[in-house]
Amino acid sequence: YPSELLMQKITEDNQIPVHIHVSVSLQYVAGLKGRALVEFFHSNIAEVENEELRHLMWSSVLFYKTPSVEVMACVLLSTKAIYFLLDDSFIHADEHQSDFWNKENSDCENSSFHLSCCFVLKLNDLQSVNVGLFDQYFRITGHSADHIVTCLTRDSYNTHTFIQQLMAVLSLLARTPSPEPVDKDFYSEFGSKNTGKMENYELIHSSRVKFIYPNEEEIGDLAFLVAEKMDGLTNLPSLNILLYVLAFQVNHFEGSAQNTSSLQPKTLILTSSDLFLFDEDYISYPLPEFAKEPPKRDKYQLADGRRIRDLDRVLMGYQTYPQALTFVFDDVQNQDLMQNLTLDHFGE
Fold first, then answer.
1. What is the pLDDT of residues 286-328, one digit of tens each?
2. Residue 2 to residues 35, 258, 287, 310, Cα–Cα distance (Å)
3. 214-327: what fold?
């Protein structure tokens, strides 16, 4: 340890997405290669001497205590813990976070010394991992509200790779084995006898950590919700969700000095007749066991919706991934204007 293959892999993975702006301290981390990266981990991050770095990933993260603040993080998986190396600006983004982070005032604010904070989730404290729809994100749950983090990878490959690596590392943990399960049939295993409703698919790892995957009903619930937002214009049986993807909406600001743009996280849902943008709560659902009350907002909140028939053209940028798409719709204020004109013109 470390093997050449591991060093090559973490060097390749150590790249900040081009559309994300991070602090100088995280840029420094992203500039490290191979053995220098491993040495940086052991001298600055690792909590015990004999732990090994196994995987590195850059991802946006959300914390349960601050569900509205999405921040870029370097996620480091070792044989002992998951480390989230965070942008220092995150601490100052919200006054309510001071209790959460217990941050002391530092004298190095104005010097050339750049600070990052590191959130640690020990593998022994890990209880469950919820994988989001189409592997666009996953939520890691520990034993309290402080230990719930969602990684918004927006990429099924990154999600799949991290989950694989996490399972491999959890297999090394020495935990007392759970009692042998009694043989159950399919219906008693997956269904609740009280409601008859199918539960989400659960895989209980040998370390007793639950890996929970969404089932088909979540898509059905989402289709029903989308149909509701369409004011019943479409009959539900024919409504198919063709695409679900976590994306960013680009808001362009024309400033005096230079034109700037901000990225607003959105969930894009495409059906056979409409294009929707939702504000989705990625961290509060499903409810953790210790939650006393439901979250303040619904899981899906409609931000925008347009009919495909009103789509005039789609503009595509030439840059590599992530690709920028601009959807240009006919500028009709009242979507049913044509229909109303026809009725007025031809009478009842």
1. 888 888 888 888 899 999 988 899 999 999 877 766 778 899 9
2. 8, 45, 39, 56
3. PH-domain like (2.30.29)
| Class of the domain covering 2-171 | mainly beta
Looking at residue 265, what DSSP letter applies?
E
Partners of residue 201 on adjacent β-strands: 213
The most distant pair of C-alpha atoms in the chain lies apart, rounded to whole Å, by 83
- H or E segment to which residue 143 belongs: none
- Residue 205 has a CB neighbour count (10 Å cut-off) of 17
**Domain extent listing, the chain:** 2-171, 214-327
DSSP state of 308: G
Query: Does residue 249 contact residue 264 with C-beta atoms inside 8 Å?
Result: yes
What is the CA 252 to chain-centroid distance, rounded? 24
Specify the pTM: 0.81
DSSP output for 181-208: PPP--HHHHHB-TTT-PBPPEEEE-TTS
Of 123 and 91, the structure prediction assigns the larger pLDDT to: 123
Cα separation values, 9 from 35, 42, 198, 227, Å: 11, 17, 39, 44
Residue 4: in which H helix or E strand, if any?
helix 4-13
φ, ψ of residue 6 to 5 degrees: the values are -65, -45
Burial of 186 (0-12, 13-18, 19+ CB in 10 A): exposed
pLDDT given for residue 203 in this prediction: 82
Q: Do domains 2-171 and 214-327 have the same CATH topology?
A: yes
